[in-house]
Design goal:
- This protein has a single domain, classed as Alpha/Beta hydrolase fold, catalytic domain (Rossmann fold, 3-Layer(aba) Sandwich), CATH 3.40.50.1820.
- Helix content is about 35%, strand content about 20%.
- It contains 8 helices and 9 strands.
- It has a 9-stranded mixed beta sheet, sandwiched between helices.
- Helix 1 runs parallel beside helix 8 and helix 3 packs across helix 4.
- The protein is globular and about 50 Å long.
């Protein structure tokens, strides 16, 4: 734990030193993000609506040149150690709520509109780190597969990779919600190809690095049925993926309390 904290401190110092050398504008008020302004972990937070859905952008104290950003499509603020560390390094943190859309084509379309808005109107970098927690992993992978040129790195945390594992038919309400969102019936499922496991080839071809985190005792989104299979398939495709497996950990808590290994991977591989 102490070693990880020391590493993160070093990363913060090095990155903020580079940012200071580039003399960025503090607080980046020129971004002119809309909505309600508040504080989040000591940073300026903007809450607004985009196409009728909740959106949030948190602005670093000193943005790195080019305004790099990390984008969470579900569960803003939950187990946010990586997001807070990235803010300290000069990254914007963005959220656009497609939590309950199960990585559907509709969700991917909405996400692309949001990405384009962030890049064209607010000047964020045209390659983004996409962060998928749990069901957010469905969106993260499917959106990256549809937009590989727009993704610099994927951070997947206990991600749903196969709908037969989660939500599965054990949860009737969620399963029916999934079928409705995808415009499917049970008769369509034998030929369904919308799982993240089905959509890795464009990501591997684009050489997008993936950092995956999961608990080996996850009962909600079992590691053996999800991230383990995704990692195996991605390596067969010669994709770069690192998995951090947490012994004895269930679905919660997500991420790492000391996020240095995740942050280091993102910074090293997402250049």
């Amino acid at each position: 734990m102490k070693q990880a904290l020391c590493l993160l401190t070093l990363l913060l110092a090095l990155s903020l030193g580079r940012a200071a050398a580039a003399t960025p504008a503090k607080n980046e008020q020129a971004d002119s993000f809309p909505g309600t302004v508040s504080q989040w972990h000591g940073y300026i937070r903007h809450d607004f609506k985009f196409n009728g859905r909740d959106a949030i952008v948190v602005v670093p104290q000193a943005s790195l040149p080019g305004k790099p950003w990390i984008w969470r499509p579900a569960f803003f603020g939950a187990f946010a150690s990586v997001d807070v560390a990235m803010l300290a390094l000069g990254y914007h943190v963005a959220y656009y709520d497609v939590t309950h859309l199960y990585g559907s084509p509709h969700a991917v379309e909405l996400g692309t509109l949001f990405f384009n808005e962030m890049v064209s109107r607010y000047g964020l970098r045209d390659k983004v780190i996409v962060e998928g927690f749990s069901r957010g992993g469905m969106f993260a992978v499917n959106w990256a597969a549809a937009n590989p040129s727009k993704v610099s790195c994927l951070y997947l945390d206990a991600p749903v990779c196969d709908v037969e594992s989660w939500p599965s038919r054990k949860d009737t309400k969620l399963w029916n919600d999934f079928l409705t969102e995808w415009h499917l019936t049970e008769a369509d499922m034998p030929t369904f190809k919308g799982n993240p496991l089905d959509n890795l080839r464009p990501i591997a071809k684009a050489r997008i690095p993936i950092i995956g985190v999961a608990g080996d005792s996850d009962k909600t989104v079992p590691y053996d049925e999800n991230l383990k299979i995704l990692a195996s398939h991605y390596r067969i495709m010669h994709g770069l993926i690192q998995v951090i497996l947490k012994p004895g950990c269930d679905h919660h808590p997500h991420s790492l309390a000391a996020p240095a290994p995740i942050v280091r991977f993102i910074i090293d591989k997402a250049r």
